Amino acid sequence: MIYQAFKDIKVSRLGMGNMRLPSLAGEKGKFPLDYSESARMIDAAIKGGVNYFDTAYVYQNGDSERCVGEAMKRYPRDSYYLATKFNYRANPDYKAVFAEQLERLQTDHIDFYLLHCMTERNIDSYLTCGCIEYFEQMKKEGKITYFGFSSHAQPETLRRFADAHDWDFAQIQMNYLDWEFGTTEEEYNILTERNIPVIVMESVRGGRLSSLTPQLDEELRKAQPTWSVSSWAFRWLMTHDNVLVMLSGMSTMDQVVDNLKTFEKDNALTKEQSDFLIDIAHRFKEGFTVPCTACRYCTPNCPMQLDIPSLLKVYNDYKYNRRWENNLKDVEEAKQPSNCVGCGSCKEHCPQNIDIPSYMAKLAKLNETGKEE
Question: What is the per-residue pLDDT across 309-332, written as a single tens digit (0 to 9) for each?
Fold first, then answer.
């Protein structure tokens, strides 16, 4: 295991995320958890040198914190670091939440404590509710060692929050796909410029980067036969100096074993390998998104006056994130894709020759069932 110096300690570069632990039903991330198998995975991680374990108040209905607490109580408390989070929207009573978390985790202190999922919707709540002052007091009392936050906010909001307090660290979503096609690079630079170390979540984008396509996977394996597809994502992260810990939400023993192999030594990608991976990322994205340029040649001829480019963007966002969460909730009823009559006028005017009616049908099905098929 490779380690990184932080303050006066050393943390493992690989952190075990505990949001997707195996459940008794055989599914990842569901309640109730399989405590026995989860403990077996945690044991393997510890044996492999992992000393950073991440959970949160809301993960798996609180079962994640309880499971981690049960597993970790078998080890000396000074041999590992616990990270957990306060989520304002789940329960704004930060004092009660913190007390409950100490009980769940069966500990008298939290090593890395975070304000959870800071966004545009909750930034003002976090800044004004008094939780920051309270957790700073807990830090003075030795019940919190390091205090930070996790962010899913836009760069301008992240910049505001980063400047609002003297944070010990921050956690952001970071991987080579979001670096190329999202705002991750700007977010990383905002934190780096302020000397705020980065904990990485979604290192493999919830498993999205563990298997791309059969062809692209084969290209990666051909380039490095002993590396897994997932390991490319971690090795890309290793090239960034301000990354402290890379989290992996492990849900199987095979994932634990593969990750431990990746972090046996510091094997960051070379410049040539990074360029190769970014080329792979571009070809990967092209393969699952609709090539709409928002030229809007289609819209004047739509008899239902649908905002076709906006609807196609919703579809692309779904394909990119691989989850449907009522993505059309802000679209008025008359402009829903289900109103498409399939006339094909849009397709006739599309310079990209996109089969727009078929995507309207897919969106309508998604909106109705949450599934494409």
Answer: 999 989 988 887 777 887 898 899
Q: Is the pLDDT of residue 27 over 70?
A: no
**284-294 pLDDT, tens digit each:** 988 778 888 88
- The residues of the chain that CATH labels 3.20.20.100 are 3-280
pTM: 0.84
Q: Which CATH architecture has domain 3-280?
A: Alpha-Beta Barrel (3.20)
> In this structure, how many other beta carbons lie within 10 angstroms of the beta carbon of residue 115?
28
The answer on pLDDT for 219 being more than 90 is yes
